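Notes from the pairing session

We agreed to fold both candidates in a single pass and log them together. This is the raw record for the first candidate, unedited. Please don't reformat it; downstream parsing expects exactly this layout.

Candidate A
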Amino acid sequence: MKLVILEPLGIDMAALRAMAQEAVGDRMEIVCYDDRVEDTASLIERSHDADVVVLSNFKYGADVMSQCPNLKMVCVAFTGVDHVDVDYCRAHGITVCNCAGYSTVAVADLVFGMVISLARRIPQCDAAVRIGGTKNGLVGFELEGKTFGVIGLGAIGQRVARIARAFGCTVLGYNRSPRTLEGVEQVSLEELLRRSDIVSLHVPQTAETIGLIDRQHLAMMKKTAFLINTARGPVVDSQALADALRDGTIAAAAVDVFEKEPPIDPAHPLFSAPNLLATPHVAFASQQAFEKRAVIVFDNIRKWLDGAPQNVIC
């Protein structure tokens, strides 16, 4: 059998090969690519004779997999799998596993980096002091005493809720299926939006969550509220958010994710909106997270080879 790692996974290539070898021993031939390609022809060329492929967050669809007759497992080095044609895999008996949990700490860290940057106006302060300015007009607010709404109470949402409580926030939570979490008042989506000073999104991209935060829901929020999206771009209607920032429906937003992976078109509607902090889908990416991810990837493959697959999506 053949294992093909279709792209670097953010760690040293020698270490990556060593981890792969330790995981599979002499049970698989190992091929590691040290660059990332996303076009269909190149992906077919790289994976056409693979039994197992490893990839992170680029599209891997039926157009590629239909040309890979040996394919038995897709190991997604990512939490979400919406970029992989899971229906095709299910129909053709291909196991799909993900790496849930590797980025929990990294994403939660960035959420609060974004929140504090907005609350204390750090980018504006930096710009002002560089041109001889002062704090005039740039005084922000503390998180203590604010109401922090968390939409999606999976592992990342739960960590965000715990950190918000440590800052002295009142924490509201909304989850499709109710969860019992200490110190989190679970409410409807509409109540959370109406009451929260800060709203942070932590839901997967599904048919039900695309457009979850639309013009109508943005209008429910306080005019002083912040929206933070480190989940998936399509969960928020970008044009509606841009309009909400322009007309003062909400005060500010921070966005790490868009409708597609960066690079993002400079003409994207959010980039011309005021009071927006944007990052290039970096929330999941820390040195420690990449190391955790590689461990999970090869543990997934080892367990699959042993007949006891874990982190199975289908």
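Candidate B (folded immediately after A)
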Amino acid sequence: MSEPKSRKEQVRLMFDNIAHKYDFLNHFLSAGIDKGWRKKLVKMVQHHQPQHTLDVATGTADLAIALARKSQTPITGIDISNGMLEIGREKLKKLKLDHQIVLQQADSENLPFDDQTFDAVMVAFGVRNFETLDKGLKEMFRVLKPGGMLAVLEFSKPRKFPVKQLYNFYFKYILPMLGRLISKDKAAYTYLPESVGQFPDGKLFLERLVSCGYVNNAEKRLTFGIATIYSGFKS
């Protein structure tokens, strides 16, 4: 009888399985709103003019590409799923951005970089997949330079009627069904609402940033609270 897979291994296998449909599903299931959310995160990061940026849980490199379109500085993207990275590398070659963005397979909770390497660290829809949230937050803190910025884009839970009710219905019933039909993966789009439901959003996440050493932490809720950008700094 085989040993049960860790959450980290389950996430890696899941994203390997859906990599070929991931970009399409992201944009289709969010009606393209996710592109605007990434642009807002990039604008916040760019305001601080980082000279070297780390994109954690880069997936197929959408966020790294969005930043590269606004900056000529180097970007390193890491992800645990090599299937996602392979799609990302193909995109970078087509866009001629492979000289600026370097992708490598790595664990977000054990980053293969020296202390104080990056001016900014950004994550889009990745922190809720960390096996141990605080461990991942502390690793990103470690590789940030003093004064460096962390920017996190993540799904959150709308709080007001009727958006809350509509969102919950879509996330629990419509999204998993469409995700299964298109990706052919039964677990992936059931996992999404479950992981969002378990994620400590809003003030709870800001408290986790404080406990991991970040200062001047803030949240910016987007599209009626469907997503939130969190920011923090290393003093």
